[in-house]
Automatic annotation (TrEMBL), chain A:
UniProt cross-references to InterPro entries, sorted A to Z: AAA+_ATPase, ABC_SmlMolc_Importer, ABC_transporter-like_ATP-bd, ABC_transporter-like_CS, P-loop_NTPase
Name of this protein: NitT/TauT family transport system ATP-binding protein
Source taxon at top rank: Bacteria
Record keywords: ATP-binding, Nucleotide-binding, Transport
Molecular function GO terms recorded: ATP binding; ATP hydrolysis activity
ABC transporter domain mapped to chain residues: 4-239
TrEMBL record, chain B:
CDD domains, per the entry: TM_PBP2
Annotated source species: Epibacterium ulvae
Gene3D superfamilies reported for this sequence: MetI-like (1.10.3720.10)
InterPro entries from the UniProt entry: MetI-like, MetI-like_sf
Listed name of the protein: NitT/TauT family transport system permease protein
GO BP of this protein: cellular response to sulfur starvation; transmembrane transport
All copies of domain ABC transmembrane type-1, residue ranges: 79-255
The UniProt record lists the keyword Lipoprotein: no
PROSITE patterns attached to this UniProt entry: ABC_TM1 (PS50928)
């Protein structure tokens, strides 16, 4: 049973085509890595999954629901940077995941205590309890990203979107973050989409690796044709391709 | 070694900072001395000792007729007007700035009109204000508000726009409504900017205050300066000018410290 359904998705800015004819079905609990060259539309695809952008044509449904018109609670997101609030302490950033969903953005005393306890649990899980009362700017890049992931998870989204979450981290921290993310995923069985530049990272973490590329190329007008999913790898057993998309029909 | 790489040591730095002050004082003292030597009745550049005496008298001795110390009355009146004007301007600019920065509809409606209004020279409107609001407190406060609000609003709106869009999107994925994003994400992040805006616009606020007081008033620091100008009482004027400078400096210092106390997260990265 498909959980996230992307059907015939197109995106274009002005006359420049970015994505065309993207069709894919994602099962619940799958970890999807999205790779491709720069400017191939993988970030655009993520923004549409996030409902930050509306598709030119086609639609994305989560669990058969109506396509979203703006970002909402169903989608959690972690960007490469700026995903946490600099004016809130680490602990308050986690509590914000619950308090922002109220009419005034603040919790009652009791609700705040309960949220505080859950925040402490999450702090434990993401290993940040020793810096609970510091501000994000004083944390290292890896800690900030752990906080961002914890914050997104605290809001209990149905899908988690990661936009090059480890792109700004040094290689050692990156490896630690991989372990952290895998642990968290094993515990929650969340459906995750991760855009990455790093092929190795994509295959290591993902159950499936989607490759975005342009199947058609007009040398006189590079913006003419958009990219689509050209390969859909099963990455669970070291990345042996189980399905190669048939050559896209150009005449269609 | 290049001059751009030469850094003064601590004692030298303090001495260098004191140097211009000393130079100003010396230049004044010498000029005053020369004039007083030629004519002991000269009122244009009173001796520093005369100024100190006058200052003592102004700060401590009550006026013969009203039995009140005029300088304190003037100070209270002026600071009250300044606080009212700057307070209203800050509140207005914060509300409009947040709206313009966050809501595309407000931006489309208001951003051009604010840009045009900020070009209107406020002092040119002073006669209109006196006609409309009378010669009382209202017109003076309104002049300050009109004078500094557009600039503060534009700057705050710009700051709101500069908040990384990632944060706004993230807040939405946490279920925040527009109001919650305004109150919990944008507002706390532009408040430090509001304070530094207030600090920057205090200079203009004083200018508008003194201008308004000079034209029509019966109490106030600016009023007093323009009143005693008729008697060429330079010692009184200079005392008032220095007093205003001290007040402005103190307010600025207080705001700077308030900002540092109230927003510890600003310095977390340093």
């Amino acid at each position: 049973m498909s959980f996230v359904t992307v059907s015939n998705l197109w995106q274009r800015y002005g006359t420049r085509s970015i994505l065309e004819r993207v069709n894919v079905d994602i099962h619940e609990g799958e970890f999807i890595s999205i790779v491709g060259a720069s400017g191939c539309g993988k970030s655009t695809f993520l923004r549409m999954l996030l409902a930050q952008e509306q598709p030119y044509r086609g639609e994305i449904r989560i669990d058969g629901g109506t396509p979203a018109r703006e970002p909402n609670l169903e989608r959690g997101v972690v960007f490469q940077k700026y995903s946490v609030f600099p004016h809130l302490s680490v602990r308050d950033n986690l509590i914000a995941a619950e308090s922002f969903n109220t009419p005034f953005g603040r919790l009652s005393r009791n609700a705040r205590k309960a949220a505080g306890r859950r925040a402490d649990d999450m702090l434990e899980r993401i290993g940040l309890n020793h810096v609970a009362h510091q501000y994000p700017a004083s944390l290292s890049g890896g800690m900030q990203q752990r906080l961002a992931i914890g914050q997104a998870m605290n809001a209990k989204p149905r899908i988690l979107l990661l936009d090059e979450p480890f792109g700004a981290l040094d290689p050692g921290t990156r490896l630690q973050m991989h372990d952290f993310l895998m642990e968290l995923r094993d515990e929650t069985n969340m459906t995750v989409f991760m855009v990455t530049h790093d092929l190795q990272e994509g295959f290591k973490l993902g159950d499936r690796v989607l490759v975005f590329d342009k199947p058609r190329w007009d040398p006189h007008d590079p913006g003419r044709y958009g990219a689509t999913i050209t390969y859909d790898f099963d990455a669970r057993d070291g990345g042996i391709p189980f399905q190669m998309k048939e050559e896209t029909d150009v005449s269609e | 070694m290049r001059w751009i790489n030469k850094i003064p040591e601590r004692p030298a730095a303090i001495l260098l900072a004191a140097l211009p002050f000393l130079a100003i004082f010396l230049a004044y003292a010498i000029a005053s001395d020369i004039r007083l030597e030629a004519n002991p009745q000269d009122k244009l550049l009173p001796a520093p000792s005369t100024i100190v005496e006058t200052a003592q008298r102004l700060f401590t001795e009550p006026d013969r007729r009203s039995k009140e110390i005029l300088l304190w009355n003037d100070t209270l009146a002026s600071l009250g007007r300044l606080a009212a004007g700057v307070g209203i301007a800050a509140t207005l600019s914060l509300a409009i700035g947040l709206a313009v920065g966050l809501l595309p509809y407000a931006r489309s409606t208001l951003s051009s009109v604010i840009a045009v209004l900020s070009m209107v020279p406020p002092l040119a409107l002073l006669p209109i204000l006196f006609i409309v609001f009378g010669l009382g407190e209202t017109s003076k406060i309104v002049l300050i508000v009109i004078g500094i609000t557009p600039f503060m609003t534009r700057d705050l709106a710009q700051r709101v726009l500069e908040i990384p869009h990632e944060q706004i999107v993230k807040a939405q994925t946490l279920g925040a409504s527009s109001a919650v994003i305004a109150m919990r994400v944008a507002l706390p992040q532009v408040l430090p900017r509001l304070i530094s805006n207030v600090r920057l616009s205090l200079g203009s606020a004083w200018l508008f205050l003194i201008a308004a007081e000079a034209v029509a008033s019966n109490v106030g620091l600016g009023y007093r300066i323009f009143l005693v100008r008729r008697y060429l009482a330079m010692d009184v004027i200079l005392t008032y000018v220095m007093w205003i400078t001290v007040l402005a400096f103190l307010i600025d210092w207080l705001l700077k410290n308030l900002s540092r106390r109230a927003f510890p997260w600003m310095e977390a990265g340093l």
